[in-house]
Amino acid sequence: MADADDVRRLALSLPHVVEIDSEGFDFRVGDKGFVWSYPEREPGKRRIIRTDIAVLFVGDEAEKQALLLGEPDLFFTTPSYDGMPLVMVRLARVDVDRLTELVVDAWRMRAPAELARDLDDSRFP
């Protein structure tokens, strides 16, 4: 199964990625976040950065709902992400191949066109 080191390795293998200094992991392409550690918030408590859960950008609400409904053991969301094309993935339940697909897809959706051309599609079909 996957972990934060896998997320970091995958994200940094993509072109034009910048890692933002954080308590966990936080990756951007073209100043747009595409995968980061889940900042868990409980009322009345300090925020906890969960490096065992990744927040991923997805294409739209339909894709978000398909992931949430199709694989509820793997994906979830919280009310703070309502209306946003973001899902959380439990890293301990996802294999590295599937994580690769998710991270690359998130990168593709967030990368500006002039940067997206630099992705080597032979490495990430």
Walkthrough of the structure:
- With 125 residues, the protein is an alpha+beta fold.
- 30% of the residues lie in helices and 26% in strands.
- The protein is built from four helices and six strands.
- A six-stranded antiparallel β-sheet has the order 1-2-3-4-6-5.
- The longest helix is centred in the last third of the chain and has 15 residues, at 96-110.
- The two termini are 21 Å apart.
- The model has no long low-confidence stretch (mean pLDDT 93).
Condensed summary:
This protein has 125 residues and is α+β, with helices and mostly antiparallel strands.
Q: Over the alpha carbons, how many angstroms does the gyration radius reach?
A: 14 Å
Tell me roughly what share of residues is in helical segments.
25-40%
Largest sheet: 6 strands, antiparallel
Spans where pLDDT lies below 50 across 5 or more residues: none
- Please tally the β strands and state the result: 6
The CA-CA distance between the termini, in Å, is: 21 Å
**What is the residue-averaged pLDDT?**
93
How many H/I helices? 4
Note the beta-strand portion: 25-35%
Helix/strand class? alpha+beta
Element order: H for helix, E for strand = HEEEEHEEHH
